[in-house]
Amino acid sequence: MSPLAPTADHAWLRPDAPALGRQILAVDASGPLVETVGAEVADLTTWHGGRLAPTDEATVVLTTADRARGVLAAAGLGEPDRAVADLGPEAFAVVRGHGRLAVVGGSDRGLLYGFHHMRRLQDPLGHGSDGTEIHAPTHPVRMLDHWDNVAVHPVMGQVERGYADGSLFYHDGRLRPNLDRVRHYARLLASVGINRVSLNNVNVHRLEATLLTERLDDVVRLAEVFRPQGVAVYLSVNFSSPMTLGGLPTADPADEAVRSWWASAVRRIYDAIPDFGGFVVKADSEGQPGPFGYGRTHADGANMLARALAPHGGEVFWRAFVYNHRQDWRDRSTDRARAAYDHFTPLDGQFDDNVVLQVKHGPMDFQVREPVSPVIGAMPRTRLALELQVTQEYTGQQRHVCYLAPMWSQVLHFPFGEDDAPTVSDVASGRATAPSGGIVAVSNVGADEHWTGHPFAQANLYALGRLAWDPQLPAESILDEWLAATFADESVRDAARSIMTGSWETYEQYTAPLGVGFMVRPGHHYGPDVDGYEYTPWGTYHFADRDGVGVDRTRATGTGYAGQYPEPWASRFELSETTPDELLLFFHHVPYTHRLHSGKTVIQHIYDTHFAGVERVEEMLATWERVREQAPRPLADRVRERLEEQRRSAIEWRDQVNTYFFRKSGIPDNRGRTIY
Ligand code: GCV
């Protein structure tokens, strides 16, 4: 790939999008990010013909809480409401009255978020009634993890599970000399409230490990680009670094020399980057080293790093993705889904305050449908972060349209108990058990001229930020916001809305049914291979035979995983009659003739959904063809090319899955359609 070219695709910060009309603006605020807000305002006035003026002339005033009294008075908006004095640093207030409006940030950071809120409203003076509205993020941690390698990895490429070309940060084994695209990326992140970013793959190879030491200057440069947008940088670190980088004979967390190696590595970082965020760690997982190698617990490992970071205010995001990836497929009692709970819940209460346990949303690995991980509801004395995957590893790899916000909303609202019990979001936000861990997600962005491979995948990045800020926002309103900010033409917006709405369910229809998971081609994970992982050590099986399919995870006759949930879920998942259809095969091995709540048999459901999924993709393609001429180029052609690939791939999935289950079961389709 050539050095990174500038892109014409501004994503949702399209400069010509209607924003704040032709208002007269004033900025009178304090703090280091005010310069960033000022640059945004200058940009707006250039594009939209508004102008900057003193506060008393302005129709829209941007200020911070420490100056609110004087500024609001000068703007004729009276005394600030009491709530303005209590704003947290990331919060902002919108004060309206007499045809004027003020945005008051709890700090300069809150003001930056408030500015982007105004921008989203497009015509803020036309919205809302007079008075004061308060906006504050639900989850204080809103973080993106990049799985970027500095050099191209021989198997995983430059970005592990990256589907948007190379890395935005690194090229040719080093930091890109021109970071302008990163600058725009940082701005995109701030516009949806992301406040942390981790800069390298959690599988930390030798070269990438040196970001901590001899390549620290690269981290300094990236921090300089993210800082003006209020985004703190983190590094993924390798647990063996004291040996591989420090030449010590061990990486045992109990060893004094190891502890002091980490302490001095951390000191050097903070000397260079005083607002450095901390570390992300994948330990004892898929070949990465960790504390188990020294007979220590994950609390011992995490706390050692946490103690090196604590004097500087840093944090450790320690991943709970720990399981045996060398399992014997013949052994049906070992269940990968159980692993995180079994490893981590006994450690509840043993992690230091600056450790966050980062838990994938499902117990397996970002499949198109999984139940919510029971770990999230089972560790009340531990800070927990929910980990989501914006990069579409198992949901079409940014060649297929798959709008993921509806899935994430469902996860965030899952209650660990009866309906009024604390939800996933309550845990991640610290409302259920303080303090909070937050929302962490694997980024889907790369050097691609459209940022995300499929231009519609930009909506997933946008939605991640919006839901992390406010999980109550409906997925469809977020989509509308994104469409309004991204496309000028209404017919294009309508077409994109119709293509993207329900696209998660469509993807599920033509791929792995009823929560069964993993029917992808091993290695790269794209396209169908029903038995691809069936006889491997990875712990991802569907157990299809001539009579039935699915994994028995009940307490009565299976692996007992269903018992890791609190009631009523443990009892509901224990029985096939009370398990929701979409998760049936995750929890139960059932005959093909088993009747779903929908009234269909499992086998007929498989046939029907696979045919329906392909039909829906045909409709998507036809919908885009109708508006393609109105959409901007080259985006329009990219979308068409991706939809054509989605159709090809969906047909391949349909035919392989249907044929596989027809051959296993011998049961014909009751509608007599072609199955090979
Ligand atoms: C970064 C899955 C992916 C791996 C990824 C891993 C993880 O197994 O296939 O590429 O590694 O998850 O989350 O650590």
UniProtKB/TrEMBL annotation:
Q: Where are the transmembrane segments?
A: none
What region holds the Glycosyl hydrolase family 67 C-terminal domain?
452-673
Keywords for the protein's UniProt record, in alphabetical order:
Carbohydrate metabolism, Glycosidase, Hydrolase, Polysaccharide degradation, Xylan degradation
List, alphabetically, the Pfam families matched.
Answer: Glyco_hydro_67C, Glyco_hydro_67M
InterPro entries per the UniProt record, alphabetical: A-glucoronidase_C_sf (IPR037054), GH (IPR017853), Glyco_hydro_67_aGlcAse (IPR011395), Glyco_hydro_67_C (IPR011099), Glyco_hydro_67_cat (IPR011100), Hex-like_dom2 (IPR029018)
| Entry annotated with the keyword Cytoplasm | no
The UniProt similarity line reads: Belongs to the glycosyl hydrolase 67 family.
Name listed for the protein in its UniProt record: Alpha-glucuronidase
